[in-house]
Specification:
The complex is a heterodimer of chains A (428) and B (228). Chain A has 428 residues and is of the alpha+beta class. Chain A has 12 helices and 13 strands. In chain A, the strands form 2 sheets. In chain A, strands 1, 3, 4, 5, 6, 7, 8, 9, 10, 12 and 13 form an 11-stranded mixed sheet that branches. Chain B has a domain of 157 residues: 3-Layer(aba) Sandwich (Rossmann fold), CATH 3.40.50. Classes of the chains: A alpha+beta (428), B alpha/beta (228).
């Protein structure tokens, strides 16, 4: 029998003394694990979803809201912007790619986005099957949407107003003509169509009649790469969402990719100062958002560390008080030939086994908790994966081992120094 | 000082020379020299408080004397490092105490396994079964100590002491809490085990009942040894 087996046997024989240490370590590790996995995944989502997007241009309001609504699709838009103004901006030579977004409806909580084929280019999306939309009310759905609702090419779906599933449904159905390959980002959760379909939907729904002169339609923006959709029907949508804005077609926002790094210094200022729109940088805004979240994360982390310290104390106390009971056992082991080092090792092994077990249980609890959180928040942008293991979790286990080591150090030294003779003759 | 004389030193299994032990409080004990030839079972007699246990610990390598030499199986044991001494004790000295002191979290078999393991011997299940069989404990192999009777625990302790075929078998007051009948059977058992395993038995006791079976004795309180 080796040291670990002897230590393990002793833990098993005295479960009451061990359980508190294991539980406390498990809770501490569990909380740290949830924090780790959550912040990793949020960070990953934030970066992968905003990859390639240098600037979001939308209606004035909160820049974080603009970013959340147009990139992560988890908040309501700030309002609408003039399509003409957006096109003018897209024509700027500093803009490599400009993707128009027109938001307003959802399908089962998945946002329906009016856009053009540049959207696929921006997110590097490929079609799994089918084709891109060619006429109004044709739609291409994200991989997760198709999977969750078992959607096939040719199926029809109805949109509901806003971003919540409970919104009123609109009359005109969309026909699925394409399904996207999974891109492991927010695009998987979206329903894409052309801008005109979104305009039509709201026009129908709100009974607005088109009165715009077809000749007023702005020119196709040449610098916008893929460009914005031409071939727009001559209708005006007065209200995209909130019912304000008039006198021209409106979209919700524009996602912009710079053609040239110098745009960083020029474009946002240009938009914010000389237009009625606002520009938000996803990198800056997500950093700001993260630092706001960070305060909360920090305080939970402190709590987790406090629990870990309590775990260490509990393991220390249980090992230390057990020494009194076990000193005969230890002395006998010495008489049987065990060296002082062996006894030291046995006590250390016990401490480490306790906290290591606790840390393992904690990781399981953490992932389980994360799984529960992720199935409760099935928001369009939630792509949390409870089963993903991170290399950093090794460090959580290592922390567990370290805590066991620290907690067991003093009892182990005491075991090391136990005088066999005094213990056996009962004078100590 | 009177010493038991021997034919040949190589057959001496225990030799104590010039032993003095000073307690931390300043009281010191002086022990008479002693030589025990292989196979001559010997009692260490003395009233409680006379230093019997101290001597027993010194000759088992548990307590370093202030001065003097302890030679077991031709090894001056206090020349060893602590680790070497632990190892030597595990292999060559079998210890039996008044209480069995089995490791409670381990089964009977595992208690014997650690006795082999700590002494650096190979784990030999055959040997464990053999010893358990001799001591009539075969069916207790997988039992935990707290399910055993006092007598059974005592027998497991004896099994543990002899498992590595030690040169000397040292027992400290093994009969102190036993009635006459059990005393006799424990002494018989110890003697037979010592004979069977080729060990020399050394029993520290103030129990006069033990004296009938073992003629050679070493008196601690007077510091002399005697043959009765």
């Amino acid at each position: 029998m080796n040291i670990l087996q002897i230590a393990w046997k002793n833990i098993r024989k005295n479960p009451a003394a061990s359980i508190l240490g294991i539980l406390l370590t498990a809770f501490g590790t569990g909380i740290l694990c949830v924090l780790l996995v959550a912040s990793k995944q949020i960070e990953q989502q934030l970066t992968s979803n905003s990859q390639g997007i240098d600037l979001v241009v939308g209606a004035k309001g909160s820049p974080i809201q603009l970013m959340l609504s147009s990139i992560y699709h988890i908040d309501n838009p700030t309002g609408n912007i003039s399509y003409r103004e957006a096109r003018a901006l897209a024509a700027n030579r500093l803009v490599k790619l400009a993707v128009p977004l027109s938001l307003g409806d959802n399908y089962q909580g998945h946002r329906i986005i009016g856009t053009d084929s540049s959207f696929l280019q921006l997110y590097d999306l490929e079609l799994e099957k089918g084709r891109l939309w060619q006429s109004d009310f044709e739609t291409v759905v994200g991989a997760a949407v198709a999977r969750n609702y078992h959607l096939q090419l040719g199926d029809q779906l109805y949109g509901a107003h806003g971003l919540s599933k409970e919104g009123s449904t609109h009359g005109h159905p969309y026909t699925i003509v394409g399904i996207l390959q999974s891109a492991k980002n927010v695009a998987d959760q979206l329903v894409l169509t052309n801008l005109a379909s979104v305009w039509h939907t709201h026009e129908d729904a709100h009974g607005d009649s088109g009165d715009e002169d077809p000749e007023n339609e702005p020119e196709h923006a040449p610098a916008a790469g893929q460009g914005l959709p031409d071939n727009q029907p001559p209708h005006l949508v007065k209200n995209m969402l909130e019912g304000f804005g008039s006198g021209g077609r409106e979209i919700t926002s524009l996602l912009i990719q710079y053609s040239n790094p110098s745009a960083i210094a020029i474009l946002p200022r240009l938009v914010n100062q000389s237009t009625s729109m606002q520009a938000a940088s996803p990198a800056l805004e997500s950093a700001r958002l993260f630092s706001l979240l960070g305060i909360g994360i920090d305080s939970i982390e402190v709590l987790a560390y406090v629990i870990m310290v309590m775990a260490a104390l509990s393991v220390f106390i249980s090992l230390y008080s057990a020494l009194k009971r076990r000193k005969y056992d230890l002395a006998i082991m010495r008489t049987l030939g065990a060296s002082q080092g062996k006894l030291f090792g046995i006590v250390i092994a016990e401490g480490i086994l306790l906290t290591f077990t606790g840390a393992l249980v904690g990781l399981v609890i953490g992932h389980l908790a994360f799984f529960l959180i992720s199935i409760r928040t099935d928001d369009a942008a939630t792509l949390l994966q409870a089963s993903t293991l991170y290399p950093q979790e090794i460090w959580l286990l290592a922390t567990g081992v370290l805590i066991g080591l620290l907690a067991a150090a003093l009892p182990a030294i005491k075991a090391y120094n136990t005088s066999i003779s005094k213990t056996l003759s009962g004078t100590q | 000082m009177h010493t038991i004389m021997l034919e040949s030193s190589t057959d001496t299994v225990v030799r104590l020379q010039g032993l003095i032990y000073r307690y931390p409080l300043g009281v010191s004990l002086q022990f008479a020299d002693l030589e025990i030839p292989r196979g001559r079972h010997t009692l260490i007699l003395g009233d409680s408080g006379s230093g019997k246990t101290t001597l027993l610990h010194i000759l088992s390598g548990l307590l370093k004397p202030t001065s003097g030499q302890v030679t077991i199986a031709n090894q001056d044991i206090y020349q060893f490092t602590t680790k070497q001494l632990d190892h030597f004790r595990g292999q060559r000295i079998g210890l039996i105490f008044q209480d069995a002191h089995l490791v409670k979290s381990l089964t009977v078999k595992e208690n014997l396994q650690i006795a082999q393991g700590f002494a650096g011997a190979r784990i030999d299940i055959g040997r464990i079964r053999e010893v358990l069989d001799i001591l009539d404990l075969s069916d207790k192999e997988n039992d935990y100590p707290d399910t055993l009777s006092r007598g059974q625990m005592q027998r497991v302790a004896i099994a543990r002491a002899v498992i590595n075929r030690p040169a000397i078998l040292v027992a400290d007051e093994p009969t102190a809490s036993l009635d006459d009948r059990n005393t006799a059977s424990v002494v018989e058992l110890l003697l037979r085990q010592a004979e069977d395993q080729g060990a020399t038995l050394i029993i520290a006791t103030h129990d006069k009942r033990v004296k009938n079976r073992i003629p050679h004795a070493y008196q601690v309180d007077t510091g002399t040894s005697s043959n009765t």
